Amino acid sequence: MAILKFVTRRLWAEKTPLLCMLVLVLLMSAACARAANEIVPFADIEAESGGRGYNWLSIHPDGHRWLITECVDQRGHRICQPFLYDFRSGRYQRFALPDGYTYMHARFSPGGHVIVAERNPLPVEGTAAEKNRLLRQTEFIRVNIDGTGFQVLPVPKGESTYAVMSPDESKIAYWSASETSLGEGLANKRTQEIREFDLATQVDRLFAGPFDFRMGGNLEYRDNDSIAAQVYGSSAREPKTINGEKYHLMEIVRLHRDVKVLPDALVAEPFMYAAAIFDNRQRLHLMTQEKSRELAMAKIDAQGERYVWQSPRFAKGALVAMAIPPDGRYTGFIYMTESVLSAHQKNRLGYFCTCNGRWYSVRLPNADAAEIIEVR
To answer: Could you give the CA distance from residue 11 to residue 105 in angstroms, rounded to a whole number?
Structure first.
C-alpha cells in the first residue's frame, strides 16, 4: 500500500484531475495487496541493470490484463512463451503451450477472448544454417484466454511475424518475408509484405501491394478492410536527406485491401522505434528515442494536434515494444537494460500514464513462480 499512498499524495499535490487520478489508482489498487512495489516511479528505482527476457506486449480491451511474451532459458534453449498478468489480482500465469517450440508476439483478439501468436521449432544442432531454416517454418496458433480451443492455423509456413486479428475476428494479417536473388556474387534482396489469411475459407493472399518494404513493424486493423502499418524503406519511396545523409524514414501508413499504390504516410519519423497505432478515439500513439536515450511519447489526435511527453534519461538500451488499451489512457512498454542486442537480451517493463505525465517501472512475479494455464 505504500506505493499507492505515494502516488495518491503526488497526484493530489500536483492537482491532477480526479478522473485521471482514479484511472491510475484503480489499476494499481487491487494488485498492491499482493505486491507493494509492482509499479514504481522511475525517480525511485535503482540504477538500471538486470531485467528479464520480455520482448512483446499486448493489452486486453479491459485495460487490466497484459499479455507478455517472456523468454527464459530452459534445457539449453532460449524459450519464449506468453504470460498473462492481471493488475487487479496480481496473478502471473503462463500458457502451457506444446513443447518443442518458441512462441513470439502473442496478442489479444479485438474482443479479448482469444490470443494469437507465432511459433518456430526449437533448433537441435544449433548451427546458423539450421536457425535460418527454422525461421522459415513459422506457424500461427490461436487459443482461448482460458486455455481451451488450441489450434495451429493452416497458414502457409514461411518467415512470418506480427499476426493480428481483424475487428470481426474472421481474418488475420501478418508480415511475410521473402528473398530475391540479385545474381551471382550479390547478396539476396530481402523484402516484406503484408498478407492476410481468411479463417473461414482458409484462403491466404497478399493484402495490398506489393511494396517491397525493407522492414515491417506493428500492424493494426483500422476496420475490416484497412490496416495501419509501421513500415520502413519501400522501393516506392525516395530516401530523405537529413544532415547531409540519406535515410529512409519509419512511417505509419494506412493500406486498404488490394490497393496497388503506396499512400502518403500518416507519420514519418527518423527514430520511431515503436508504434501502438490508434486508439478508439482515432488518436495515434507512437514512441521515439533520441540519441540522449530519452524516450518521447507522442499522441496525435484526429485533428492532427500533437502532444509529446519526454521520459527521464534511460541508463542503457532502447525501446523494444509498446501497447495501449483501446481507450488509450495509458501506455505499457518494454525497454532494454543492456546497450547491445543479444540472444539473451534483458529488458524491463514500463508504464506511462497520460493522466499525470509520469513514467513508472513495472515489477512482476518471477516467471518460474507463474501459475499454469493448461492448454487443450
So the answer is: 34
CA nearest to 363, candidates 26, 41, 4: 41
Strands (E), 17-156: 39-41, 53-59, 65-74, 77-86, 92-96, 101-108, 114-121, 139-144, 151-152
Residue 359: inside a domain: yes
Q: Please name the amino acid found at residue 128.
A: A
Domain that holds residue 47: 2-180+188-371
Residue 160 lies in a domain: yes
Residue 376 included in any domain: no
Report yes or no on 323 lying in a domain.
Answer: yes
194, 183 Cβ separation under 8 angstroms: no
* SS3 call for 93: strand
* Amino acid in position 37: N
State the pLDDT confidence band at 340, using cuts at 50, 70 and 90.
Answer: low
C-alpha cell at 346: 534483458
| Cα–Cα distance measured from residue 283 to residue 71, given in angstroms and rounded to the nearest whole number | 32
Distance CA 106, CA 24 (A): 25
> What's the pTM?
0.86
* Buried residues in 152-177 as b, exposed as e (16+ CB within 10 A): ebebeebbbbbbbbbeebebbbbbbb
**In the block, residue with C-alpha cell 478522473:** 19
**371-374 and 92-96 beta bridge pairing:** parallel
Averaged pLDDT, 321-350 = 85
Q: Which amino acid is at 191?
A: T
Inter-residue contact 324 to 332 (CB < 8 Å): yes
The rounded percent of the chain whose pLDDT value lies above 90 is: 54
CA distance 208 to 221: 13
pLDDT at residue number 14: 39
Tally of domains in the chain: 1
Higher-confidence residue of 207 and 4: namely: 207
End-to-end CA distance of the chain: 38
Most confident of 188-202, 284-298, 309-323: 188-202
On whether the CB atoms of residues 319 and 295 are closer than 8 A, the answer is: yes
We report the CATH number of the domain holding residue 151 as 2.120.10.30
Judged by DSSP in three states, 307 sits in strand
Whose CA is closest to 173, among 148, 149, 209, 146? 209
Residue 20 has pLDDT above 80, yes or no: no
Is pLDDT at 370 greater than 90 in this prediction? Answer: yes
**pLDDT computed for residue 312 by the predictor:** 79
